[in-house]
Specification:
27% helix; seven-stranded mixed beta sheet; 2 domains; single chain; 17 strands; 10 helices; globular; binds flavin-adenine dinucleotide; four-stranded antiparallel beta sheet; alpha/beta; 427 residues
Length: 427
């Protein structure tokens, strides 16, 4: 490989804040609001042209799984459509505006269209970030940084140890471009919401038909009601064996998934009742990445912790509940390790503060799907309600660390829990 030696250069420091959040998905957004509410001067830097991450940019159908109380409920209260009987269904157009309004109300500094590209370190502590945007290469300094980038871009640059994907072979969950079709007769439409849901149709079993007729590695039928009449969200495109931390793989996935969309629509028209006259009206602005890096944290959440519904003394997320949502790592459908409808966990679980604390690096908190957890545990906590409440805890912890002048790892977790309790959480 040839190399180009980049010359050193001075770049402007645009802001010096208490707490800086990279990535405005469910986790990063929630961290920003909650940091500001605890009184920290807070700034959010986001690559896309809107906040919300997968919930908006990713054109997501609905908030899945549950948490007991917490900030996620406030997002639902503010963003749900009046005409929807289903609280968890997302109207992304409404959500995009509501999230911006909430940031504005709390006085959070916001920079959209701005990509984190490097971290500024003093010893083993993060003290700022370098970004690239239309405005050029810039620096933002912060006492505490929250990594809400999904992939953990900040933590990776800061040198936090990580591995990618499944422990045994490094394979990661597949990527998907979500899209919406209109013209659906929703009175007749069948909407299988899990891989394990199927229907007997005149032509045969629906999921078997999907496996046979959809363009590989697509091959399953996942359809979701929206808040709009005649409009359904499709979670059916599929690209396997790709790495969301590589631009070349993201480019490949974008093409693979987009090519599948017309063929999926034809399948829906041909085989699925109610979809005979459906047509595409929107697709996500970017391919959705389910899984990439798993970081070493002060604690790594495991599938056993979830199955046993462990109550950690240093809990900062409570009442988390979902299934092991592992999409096929090597083909369509549910992975052989995944469990959706038949999930055995009896009660909800907690996540300890230590999962948000990266090994070996100070001044940094992990938030969202990039907290420390195994491949299987991640398949559960990666859903947006849980990620939003992880963000809430990270934002509170970051702001309290600044207020008390301590590193996040030295913060008394009781102080975070006190704020969470005041906001309705029960340990
Ligand atoms: C196809 C698909 C379907 C899913 N279905 C559901 C579902 O139905 N329900 C559900 O609850 N969950 C679902 N999930 C899971 C869920 O959407 C994600 O796990 C969740 O959004 C993770 O939240 P997050 O805030 O950690 O990351 P994200 O939502 O990914 O947000 C990360 C944000 O960081 C920004 N960012 C990334 N890198 C940088 C950078 N270098 N600089 C600046 N900004 C950056 C991104 O633009 C993004 O806005 C699905 C995921 C996928 C991919």
């Amino acid at each position: 490989m040839k190399f180009y030696q980049e010359p050193a250069r001075k770049i402007p420091i645009i802001e010096e804040v208490d707490v800086l959040i990279v990535g405005g998905g469910p986790a990063g957004f929630s961290a920003a609001i909650n940091s500001a509410r605890v009184g920290a001067k807070t700034m959010l830097v986001e690559l896309a042209g809107q906040v919300g991450g997968m919930a908006t940019t990713g054109l997501m159908s609905h908030w899945t799984g549950a948490t007991r109380g917490g900030f996620y409920e406030e997002i639902l209260d503010r963003s749900q459509d009046n005409n929807s009987q289903h609280r968890q269904i997302i109207n992304p157009e409404k959500l995009k505006l509501v999230l911006l309004e909430m940031l504005n109300e709390e006085g959070v500094g916001l920079r959209l269209y701005t990509m984190f590209v490097d971290v500024i370190m003093e010893g083993n502590s993060t003290v700022g970030v370098v970004t690239e945007s239309k405005s050029g290469r810039e620096a933002f300094m912060a006492k505490v940084i929250v990594d809400g980038s999904g992939d953990g871009d900040v933590a990776a640059k800061a040198g936090v140890p990580f591995y990618k994907g499944r422990e045994s072979d490094g394979k990661m969950q597949p990527m998907t471009i979500m899209f919406k079709v209109a013209g659906v007769d929703t009175n007749r439409a069948i909407l299988p919401g899990s891989f394990e849901t199927t229907y007997q149709l005149p032509a045969g079993d629906l999921q078997t038909l999907g496996y046979k007729h959809l363009p590989y590695p697509a091959g399953h039928v996942l359809l979701y009601r929206t808040t709009l009449p005649g409009v359904v969200t499709c979670n059916m495109t599929n690209c396997i064996e790709v790495d969301g931390t590589k631009a070349e793989d993201l480019t490949k996935a974008e093409y693979v998934c987009r090519k599948q969309i017309p063929q999926i629509v034809k399948f829906l028209q041909d085989y699925v009742p109610g979809f005979e006259r459906c047509y595409v009206i929107a697709s996500a602005a970017c391919v959705g990445v389910r899984e990439t890096r798993h970081f070493e944290g002060e604690y790594t959440l495991t599938e056993q912790d979830i199955l046993e519904a462990r109550l950690f003394e240093d809990w900062v997320i409570t009442g988390a509940h979902f299934n092991f949502d592992v999409h096929g790592l090597t083909g369509p459908g549910l992975d052989e390790t995944g469990l959706q409808k038949g999930f055995p966990q009896k009660s909800s679980y907690t996540i300890p503060y230590r999962c948000l604390l990266p090994k070996g690096v100070d001044g940094l908190l992990l938030a969202g799907r990039n907290i420390s957890g195994t491949h299987m545990a991640h398949s559960n906590f990666r859903v947006m309600p849980i990620c939003a409440n992880i963000g809430q805890a990270a934002g509170i912890a970051a702001a309290l660390s600044v207020r008390h002048g301590v590193k996040p790892r030295d913060l008394d977790v009781g102080l975070i829990q006190r704020v969470l309790r005041e906001q309705g959480a029960t340990g």
